[in-house]
Amino acid sequence: MKLYYEESGAGEAVLLLHGFTGFSGDWKPLLAELPDHFCYVIPDLPGHGQSPTAGDVYTHREAAKAVYQLLDRLGIERFTACGMSGGAMTLLHMATEQPSRVEGMILVSATTHYTDQTRAIMAAVTPENMPVEEWQAMRKKHSQGDEQIRKLWVYSNAFKDDVDDMNFQPKDLEEITARTLLIHGDSDPLIPVEVVETMHDSIPDALLWMIPAGGHVPVFGEEMPEFLRRTSQFLNKEFKPDRNTDQ
Q: Nearest-CA neighbor of 3 among 19, 20, 24?
């Protein structure tokens, strides 16, 4: 599988994974504010942006394999990473399948499985239901035409039936050896708080920053400066939990 990617800077490798239906350019507003002594590897996940489509079925497990193939091609053995939503779910597969390679990871709005609440929202995502404004926004991210965009929404809808790809049990998460920071909005309509709390309890020594009144991927609004500060500290191995918001 081929992946489009960009690299920025030099130093230890940091992998940045965008959310589902996003693209590598989503990281550009943040990149200038992150530490400049790392080499950032920023791919378009399969079927996103400038990366070729992923076939009839999309799984985060296969996306993880594709990203590992990219890292192997670049000669990157060990890395730190940050993933948003679908990118974070891809990282969960990477951290459980080859745990020794992931030194640390920040998971923003990740889930271990799809709840009934999640599936109901996914079921409503169809190309026919998307407003004109959403099509226009997607065209700015995905360069291979409307059929590519349509396929991403078809993938999104199909997630509602998944019982295999995202099906992590506590025993699976206990195998993770990476330093882990979980970031979640306590008002996320897609992923209930109980899911991330179980992740926090299961991943060894994981830290959790729960953002009050935060929705899904709540780090691009007024929380962005704080997110950048904490992410920079985490990358530099200087992160200290805030007793008022972290667990």
A: 24
Please give the full DSSP string across 186-239, using - where no structure is assigned: TT-SSS-HHHHHHHHHHSTT-EEEEETT--SSTTSSTTHHHHHHHHHHHHTT--
Q: pTM value? A: 0.96
Q: Which residues pair with 82 in a beta bridge?
A: 16, 106
- Strand-pair partners of 167: 113
From first to last of its 247 residues, what are the pLDDT tens digits of the chain?
A: 789 999 999 999 999 999 999 999 999 989 999 999 999 999 999 999 999 987 889 999 999 999 999 999 999 999 999 999 999 999 999 999 999 999 999 999 999 999 999 999 999 999 999 999 999 999 999 999 999 999 999 999 999 999 999 999 999 999 999 999 999 999 999 999 999 999 999 999 999 999 999 999 999 989 999 999 999 999 999 987 765 556 6
Contact between residue 186 and residue 193 where contact means Cβ atoms under 8 Å apart: yes
- Tokens found for residue 61: 């497990």
Q: Could you tell me the two tokens for 166?
A: 């995202």
| The residue type at 55 | G
**Is residue 84 within 8 Å of 22, Cβ to Cβ?**
yes
Closest Cα partner for 97 from 176, 201, 151?
Answer: 176
